Amino acid sequence: LARRLGATTAEVETAMKLIRRLNPRPGERPVDSDGDAVVPDLIARKLNGRWRVQLNPGSAPAIGINRQYERMAAAARGDTGQYLRGRLQEARWLMKSLAQRGETLLKVGNCIVREQGAFLDYGPEALRPLTLRAIADDVGLHESTISRATTRKYMATPRGVFELKRFFSSGVATSEGGEASAT
Prior knowledge:
alpha+beta, 4-stranded mixed β-sheet, 14% strand, flat
């Protein structure tokens, strides 16, 4: 092997030792769950000088109702038909709830970007005071709904991926009489 590779016997032995230490099936090792990557729920981009927010299509699974099961539920009679129609109604309710969740998240994301656009343009020093109450009033939802909608939800921006809670902070008075983010 050394002669064929044009290497010394010592070099081949060193290479063999290295190869023997390697795992021939690296995908079989358990995955370290501490290193999971965050998948952002929202994506913020600047288009034509304005910040735009969109739902990340990769953050939620695409679900639908199998048409064959719909036909079966419509055709079934008695207890079986009632059971199938009940499950079909639950599936439609779930789809509607997920769509509403996406709409709420998008509304909240748009409000955050509108209020914190300077942060996205200039960085952390431009973060403005912002409360859950202000967003709740703006989108017409309860403050607790905004809190749930922003907990463990993330937005990808050109400055990085941030948890939505990162954009909220109380205000402190400045020496010039204005207000700055406590962050």
